[in-house]
Amino acid sequence: MSGIAATVPSFKDARHLAEQQAALIRDQVTETLDLLDAAGRVLSESIHADRNLPPFPRSTRDGYAVRAAEVADVPATLALIGEIRAGENPNTMLRQIGAGETASIMTGAPVPFGADAVVMVEYTEQQGAQVKINKGVVPGENVVPAGAEARQGSVLVERGQRLNDAAIALAASAGKSQLQVYKRPRVAVLTTGDEIVGIDTLPGPTQIRNSNSYSLAVQIREAGGEAVLLPIAPDQSSKLRSLIEEGLKADLLLMTGGVSMGRYDLVEQVLGEFKAEFFFTGAKIQPGRPIVFGKCGATAAENAGTYFFGLPGNPVSTMVTFELFARPMLEALAGTSPRKLRFVHARLKSEIRIKPGLTRFLPAHLSGEFEDSKVELVSWHGSGDVAATARANCYIVIAPHLELIPAGEFVPILLRG
Ligand code: AMP
Ligand code: MG
Fold first, then answer.
1. pLDDT digit string (tens) for 43-83?
2. Ligand 1 environment, Cβ below 6 A
3. What is the DSSP string of 286-328?
4. Count of beta carbons in the 10 Å neighbourhood of residue 289
5. Model-level pTM?
């Protein structure tokens, strides 16, 4: 697909186009980091279990190790032959549990040979060297067999997985003090507009301070990238051209502003001069309809070229379109395996009436707790209203065919941090 696309895709089609391109990304650069420095990063090697997990049949309770068949009829009385604490090896300390015998055992301790279950201490009475068992167990009860959680040599954490608390815990349990991860991709941010000034400049009465570069930098960091803020580009082709050229040296270029239908919206035109391939120009969404997605410098060689997004300049449009389309691309560049966009659902507090035709992502507030969570739109003045969006903690997602959503319905929402 080259040149400017004639038809504007639906939200879902546009999202799939972004996902398709994200799935083509390969060969990212890697680095080795200390375990805790790797938290939040994406693993570029798989972590294997260096031993069985658990390494021995582990008791999950404080109680008595028994042969389940011997306590089928209760009460049953067994002879106490010893005590097994966590960290001890009963099979070298004790003889195996024989007929009519038991040993007291602590949570996390190895279940000795001869026993196949553990009775919780609450269902027992110790009387000297004898233990009365008051409740039966089935074989395996309160015991996790050796290797049940992971076999030695099996994959504990897959390459491409973001390292969260559980993944870091698994790496620790496999003795990995360092991990190989993908380097953070560099994302150039280019804001355009004659009216936009830097935040250290006192704006004239009709000038606007650049806020988009900063919201994008936060979103980029959060998605695993490193933001590189370029100077503000005026609505003038030659300056825009040289800054786009600069931005295309990064792993991904995000532009904001200049993609609407105005006389000075020059971004698409200048990208065209770079022989950009456009995957879509516009999507049937609100906010963010004018979004542009493409690639520059693609050659026959696989993976060549730089992807770019022209995000609409209205600040809420910039935030929403990053979330919907740029994030999957950035996550792929950061090494994450492709993920589907998923919405959670919440009950609508007051009805919504809307004109059909576009998929909408409207700033909303989720309140209440537990089963009584409720969501409602925040009142706003359109996609330039960052103040309203800052009061929101989610977006209500409205399918394009809907005209009325009654209060009390469950609606899909996209959470925001
Ligand atoms: P545009 O997409 O260029 O037509 O801009 C749409 C609206 O977003 C205009 O009101 C711009 O002033 C505003 N805008 C564009 N870029 C930024 C920015 N970097 N920070 C804040 N507002 C912006
Ligand atoms: Mg503009």
1. 999 999 999 999 999 999 999 999 999 999 999 999 999 99
2. 191, 193, 195-196, 208, 210-213, 256-258, 260, 262, 265, 312-315, 384
3. ES-TT-EEEEES--SSTT-SEEEEEE-SSHHHHHHHIIIIIHH
4. 17
5. 0.92
